[in-house]
Specification:
The complex is a heterodimer of chains A (281) and B (269).
Chain A: H1 2-11, H2 20-41, H3 59-64, H4 66-70, H5 79-111, H6 113-128, H7 131-141, H8 147-172, H9 176-184, H10 189-223, H11 235-245, H12 251-275
Helix pairs in contact in A: 5-6, 5-8, 5-10, 5-11, 6-8, 7-8, 8-10, 10-11, 10-12, 11-12
Chain B: E1 8-17, E2 25-35, E3 44-48, H1 55-63, E4 73-78, E5 81-82, E6 90-93, H2 105-116, H3 121-134, H4 150-162, E7 168-172, H5 180-197, E8 200-204, H6 208-214, E9 217-222, E10 227-232, H7 244-247, H8 251-267
Parallel strand pairs in B: 3-8, 3-9, 6-7, 7-8
Antiparallel strand pairs in B: 1-2, 1-4, 4-5, 9-10
Classes of the chains: A mainly alpha (281), B alpha/beta (269).
């Protein structure tokens, strides 16, 4: 007994790393505990439950909603899988559009004082603007472009706003020593930007792109909720339609958004390790 | 004898930072010196002094980095011309590891050759490889800086500078972050490379033994304000080229270290 107690107190030493397997098991235990609590408060017949089914459906009821979501119906044409694809394509498009604009902009802002001074208001807006304001506004502005572009461009703004300060910071954080070294080795003018600042900041720029993908992904709930129709839906549409009609259907789209967001981030992080191997050696 | 311009000349140089702010700070003042251009060989000048005496400021003034061009007062001349900015004629080795993290050893050493358009593009790899071998990194040319030890990273920095054959090499405590055996190894290497480069070296160091072992001249600086207080030339034993460890055992070497230590303490009481 004394030994086990000692083991426990060792594990709880401040900042002591927890063995991997145990850490994994503890995380799994948390998920199981939440699932158990969910099952516990929603078990039994509707009127006997601790939490009424109007507030929270049981795990079984949520699972039973899957066929309704997967089926090709007028409300969800092509099933939820099609809407997942629509959302993914939208977020990828928006991320690419934002990247094409914001990476060069952030680079020159980080490199050249006058350009930075000129665009500084934009950087401040990006840092403090509540995106939720942009949702209806962007829908008004981009209405002439049609439903899909409305949503893509809103998400692109979300990416842009998130990325710009991060990219300027990534360029700022390239040590002055590298620039001094490069100049001492004869590099001049634009070469300092292209051969020193950009490549050295690139892994951090990539991280900013990766994180902005995750941010845009969370904004599909709002971005696809407005001015949505079943044809051009997306996961955000599915979630919002479920909220208005059949609340038990909200849980699976929410779960998919969570899991896909997490997986996409992990995949992009692994791609980063392939793209910038020198940083992880 | 024809007038050869001095390698480096400082005329009444004074450098003040953050002028007009509460953090205004006089880094160095009344700097006057000339380093003659010796035909076919360079000199090594060791710069000793307490923190804040302006040793690094002098290197940065010669290098011509931003904030140091022009000096607050006076003139910094390199080969008779005022310094207007950094250039490949003045190599720099920092204490911090400055290899470009995204380039292999080979590409780091080729960086300057490409930037200066030296040699034909297809010859640059051979030029770089020759120096990589000279600094003892043969076989490591395809590694990235993160895969190298501190000593190896400083070898990259040496090769990268020297492949451009600068007339002046500035070294700001290049070996301070290294452990003692590596440091001695690097001193040995620096002496070896000497014969090839014929450059004038300015080396800031905190080690009196290192200063005495490597230098033709030792400059001792005093602080508040930073200034060049003493120059020691003739008291130094000819030890460069001998083994650093066995040199340190010799009595004339020990006497020189004692003398430099004594002078250091005298000007920095």
């Amino acid at each position: 007994m004394a030994n086990r107690a000692e083991g426990l107190s060792t594990l709880f030493e401040i900042r002591r790393p927890t063995p991997r397997l145990l850490a994994w098991g503890l995380g799994a235990a948390y998920v199981l505990l939440v699932l158990f609590a969910w099952w516990f408060v929603t078990r039994g017949a509707a009127e006997e439950r601790i939490v009424s089914p109007v507030i929270l459906p049981s795990p079984g009821e949520v699972l039973q909603s899957i066929p309704m979501l997967v089926k090709d119906t007028p409300r969800f044409p092509g099933g939820i899988q099609r809407h997942l694809g629509i959302s993914l394509v939208r977020v990828i498009k928006s991320c690419i559009i934002a990247t094409i604009i914001v990476v060069p902009l952030g680079l020159v802002m980080g490199a050249y004082g006058p350009i930075r001074a000129f665009f500084e208001p934009l950087n401040i807006i990006a840092g403090y603007l509540p995106l939720i304001i942009i949702v209806p506004l962007s829908f008004v502005w981009f209405a002439p472009l049609g439903g899909d572009w409305q949503k893509v461009l809103f998400l692109a703004i979300a990416c842009f706003v998130y990325m710009l300060p991060l990219i300027v910071k990534a360029v700022d954080e390239v040590d002055e020593m590298f620039l001094n070294t490069a100049m001492t080795l004869g590099a001049r003018g634009p070469n300092l930007l292209l051969k020193v600042l950009f490549p050295i900041a690139l892994p951090d720029i990539y991280t900013a792109i990766r994180l902005s993908f995750g941010v845009a992904w969370t904004w599909i709930l709002v971005g696809e909720g407005l001015a949505a129709d079943p044809e051009t839906g997306g996961l955000g549409y599915v979630f919002n339609a479920a909220y208005r009609n059949d609340k038990v259907l909200m849980y699976i789209p929410a779960f998919i958004i969570l899991v896909v967001g997490f997986l996409a981030d992990r995949i992009l992080a692994q791609v980063g390790k392939l793209l910038f191997p020198y940083r992880y050696l | 004898m024809s007038e050869r311009p001095h390698v480096v000349e400082f005329k009444n140089v004074r450098q003040i930072f953050n002028i007009g702010t509460p953090r205004e700070y006089l880094a160095v003042t009344d700097l006057n010196f000339q380093v003659a251009d010796l035909e076919g060989k360079g000199e090594l000048i060791s710069m000793l002094g307490p923190s804040g005496c302006g040793k690094s400021t002098i290197l940065n003034l010669i290098a011509g980095y931003r904030g140091y061009v022009p000096p607050t007062e006076g003139q910094v001349l390199v080969f008779g011309k005022s310094v207007t900015g950094p250039g490949p004629d003045r190599g720099m080795v920092f204490q911090k590891y400055s290899s470009f993290p995204h380039l292999t050893v080979l590409d780091n050493v080729k960086f300057g050759l490409n930037a200066c358009n030296r040699g034909k593009p297809e010859e640059r790899t051979d030029m770089a490889m020759a120096w990589i071998k000279k600094v003892g990194l043969g076989g490591h040319e395809n590694k990235y800086p993160r895969q190298l030890s501190g000593g190896q990273q400083q070898r990259v920095a040496l090769a990268r500078s020297m492949v451009l054959r600068p007339r002046i090499i500035l070294m700001d405590e290049p070996f301070s972050a290294l452990d003692e055996p590596t440091r001695i190894e690097m001193q040995r290497l620096l002496v070896e490379l000497w014969h090839d480069v014929e450059a004038t070296v300015f080396m800031v160091t905190h080690s009196i033994a290192e200063a005495v072992y490597l230098a033709d001249r030792v400059w001792i600086f005093a602080t508040q304000p930073g200034r060049l207080a003493v120059e020691i030339t003739d008291a130094l034993p000819p030890s460069r080229g001998d083994d650093p460890l066995s040199s340190q055992e010799r009595s004339d070497f020990k006497e020189a270290v004692q003398l430099v230590t004594h002078e250091f303490q005298r000007v920095n009481p």
